[in-house]
Amino acid sequence: MIVDRLENAGRYVDQHRGFRAAFEFLKKTDIRDLADGRYDIDGMRVYALVSRVKGHGVGEAKLEAHRKYIDIQYIVAGNEVIGFRPTAECSEIATPYDAEKDIVFFADKSQTWLTVPPGSFAIFYPEDAHAPLCGEGEVQKVVVKIAVNWLQK
């Protein structure tokens, strides 16, 4: 898991082939004006999900993890609070892994709470269980999904 400001994204582009395209999309696109929805960057290998949603608070936090995709969660407006716990330390499955949706939910509680302000991003790898949207108020965010297996089309 990584949390940083978008202006520092260059530090991370060499960690995965899809990161360069993901960060270029975040830097060059006027995201504030994008409608909610999906935007293809490189087919199924890299795509973005834009949303404006209201946070539900830490009481409703559900840890989730993905196997096929890395998440780069970029905050456009509002303050996002995200829970975190390594998947290796999650032992209570709330909803079994759904391969089609690439998601598993855990009943375990977050160990750490991250405040991710506008202009910042958090990267979650498959080994990072995370509970998004735990703040209060509306958040505009972009979740860029990057295929772990780059050969995926």
Tell me about this structure.
The chain is mainly beta and 153 residues long. The protein has a single domain, classed as Jelly Rolls, CATH 2.60.120. It has 1 helix and 12 strands; from the N terminus they run βαβββββββββββ. The protein has a 6-stranded antiparallel β-sheet, with helices on one face. A 3-stranded antiparallel β-sheet has the order 4-8-7, with no helix packed on it. A 3-stranded antiparallel β-sheet has the order 9-6-11, with no helix packed on it.
- Report the major sheet: 6 strands, antiparallel
Beta-strand content estimate: over 45%
CA-to-CA gap between the ends? 25 Å
* Number of individual domains: 1
Walk across the major sheet and give the strand order. Answer: 1-10-5-12-3-2
Number of beta strands: 12
CATH fold type: Jelly Rolls
- Name the CATH homologous superfamily: YhcH/YjgK/YiaL
Helix/strand class: mainly beta
Low-confidence stretches: none
Mean pLDDT: 95
Evaluate the radius of gyration.
15 Å
User: Level of helix content?
Assistant: under 10%
* Shape call: globular
Secondary-structure element pattern, one letter each: EHEEEEEEEEEEE
CATH classification class = Mainly Beta
Topology:
Elements: E1 2-5, H1 19-28, E2 37-42, E3 46-54, E4 63-65, E5 69-77, E6 80-86, E7 93-98, E8 103-106, E9 112-116, E10 120-124, E11 128-131, E12 138-147
Antiparallel strand pairs: 1-10, 2-3, 3-12, 4-8, 5-10, 5-12, 6-9, 6-11, 7-8
What is the gist of this entry?
With 153 residues, the chain is mainly beta.
